[in-house]
Sequence to fold (335 residues):
Amino acid sequence: MNRNKSGVRKAAILLISLGPDTSAQILKLLPEFMIEKVTYEIANIEQVSPEEREKVIDDFIDTASANKYIVDGGIDYARELLQKALGSQRAKEVMDVLTQMKQSERPFSIARKADTRQLTNLLINEHPQTIALIMCYMQPEKAATVLSQFPDELQTEVAERLGTISTASPTVVRKIERIMENKFSNIIESETENIGGVKTLVEILNSVDRSTERNILSNLEETQPELADTVKASLFVFEDIINLDRTSIQRTLREVSNEDLALALKGASEEVADIIYSNMSKRAAELLKDDIQFMGPVRLSTVEEAQQRIVAIIRRLDEAGEIIITRGDQNEVII
Fold:
């Protein structure tokens, strides 16, 4: 068993031992890719011997203790205490594990933990590129809150950089970490990874209020029209129709051609199809089902183009205020 696989199994056994309530809280704090690995491992563990369970718990206690020693007095202090408590060999094993853990942590962890108001005050005077880099490592919801507090011009500049960042080298990240050292302490180095880009910008824009989103997109249309088109196409996908209210769906259907609707539903999930049918008359739904049944094979690209045309109609109606796409915490409707 390789070291990575062993680590995932240990994490799975520990979570099983801690029980569902505690484990659920811990899982929320893990990166998405690690949640998938650990939960898959949990699902595939049929039995654990008492000896293995005890060893995993002991390892966790030793590692947690070592981490506390490092916080209290540094690495040398922790190593000295561990050697006295566990012996030289075991102390080395624990310190090696901790070193690997530290190296695998994402940078700017203090930014992910900081209060959003304080974070806004700290970042607002920084260069937009620096802000964008830090936001790439933050939770989309927190980044959205901070971005919403910036002046309009800064919002657009940061959004533009978020949408165009693709990778960050360790050298650049370390340099930014050193510059921000007085404001963000305990920054940990990270290896190069894919960050930012349209996906990150879309996740953030999906959490901001509509006013902030409109302002950013409007300015991006002038400065980066291609990026603006890509972002707008990604902000609302066809499957998101299930989140619209009945009035909005029915208003949209009045604008969509029967041909596009049949093509779009040809490749849609059962949930999406049911939502569409439930917002049509029984007769219209039956005719649409017949059209789809007798349509025959259709290229995926043709289906996606029809779905995108419907998405364009939805966004146009939303811009005109004729339907409502909820954004972030903006769920109040005034009649």
